[in-house]
Task: inverse folding
């Protein structure tokens, strides 16, 4: 199982020094990948509860660096480690402009980009981004199809429900062919069907490990129904780690509790057959400096080796 690590993209610690130190140390320690999330704003009176924990928004969301620019910066300061999005809220973006930005990251990184896409959960963010909350699913399908067309063909011609590309040459293509691996966050039936049709793998966020295994088996069945090789689908699990001084109850959330409990969750993720675990410590109590992040990173590296 590969091990990824989330870059310090949120809160007061986020900045060039922290990103550089974390990215380089992750590469030195043998982590496989670096990841960013996509967060636009922190509404004071959100219309939808946060889908993890007690529904309260994490304070770190008040200050967030842009995901694509952060990945570009990290890629420039490393040599081998992959860089990925977990996840971009794809209906917010114009697919032609996004295709160019992401292809640029793949070219400048030497083919290290990996893409996690989702449709988000916050109506407030959709409104601020000028995107349609009610049509987000259809927009996602359209955008993914447009990205694939732009990356894999020349000249490009695309006619979708929401986007149109007149027959044109768009010569900037990703290094990875036909395009970087695409993972999708999903839990509703419609979104899971999208993963089965379009993605290289599933990137569940906020779903208990006890449910991930059965849902992944269902997903592979969906992939078979549309004529795909179900065994080629990857499972990439994202864990928001919260280290506590002592063990929590059996009802604790995954990746929350004592180091021993978290190590047990890492082992459980391996047993699920996950291709990769993305570890994010930015939500963990006591994370205030880049030194705190580096210390937890080294702990996780040791846990994953055992």
Result:
């Amino acid at each position: 199982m590969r091990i990824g690590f989330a870059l310090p993209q949120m809160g007061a610690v986020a900045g060039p020094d922290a990103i550089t130190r974390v990215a380089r140390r992750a590469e030195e320690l043998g982590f496989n990948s670096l990841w960013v999330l996509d967060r636009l704003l922190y509404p004071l009176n959100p219309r939808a509860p946060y889908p993890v924990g007690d529904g309260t928004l994490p304070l770190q969301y008040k200050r967030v660096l842009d995901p694509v620019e952060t990945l570009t910066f990290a890629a420039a300061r490393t040599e081998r480690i992959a860089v990925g999005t977990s996840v971009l809220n794809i209906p917010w973006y114009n697919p032609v402009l996004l295709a160019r930005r992401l292809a640029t990251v793949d070219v400048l990184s030497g083919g290290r980009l990996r893409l996690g896409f989702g449709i988000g959960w916050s109506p407030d963010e959709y409104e601020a981004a000028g995107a349609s909350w009610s049509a987000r699913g259809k927009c996602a399908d359209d955008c993914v199809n447009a990205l694939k067309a732009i990356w894999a063909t020349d000249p490009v011609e695309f006619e979708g429900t929401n986007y149109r590309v007149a027959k044109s040459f768009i010569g900037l293509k990703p290094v990875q062919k036909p395009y970087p691996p695409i993972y999708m966050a999903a839990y509703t039936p419609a979104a899971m069907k999208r993963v089965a049709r379009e993605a290289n793998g599933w990137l569940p966020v906020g779903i208990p490990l006890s449910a991930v295994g059965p849902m992944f088996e269902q997903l592979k069945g969906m992939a078979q129904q549309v004529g795909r090789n179900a065994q080629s689908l990857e499972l990439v699990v994202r864990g928001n780690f919260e280290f506590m001084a002592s063990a929590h109850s059996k009802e604790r959330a995954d990746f929350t509790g004592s180091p021993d409990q978290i190590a047990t969750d890492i082992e459980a993720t391996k047993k699920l057959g996950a291709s990769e675990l993305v570890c994010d410590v930015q939500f963990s109590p006591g994370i205030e400096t880049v030194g705190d992040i580096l210390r937890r990173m080294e702990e996780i590296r040791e846990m994953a080796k055992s």
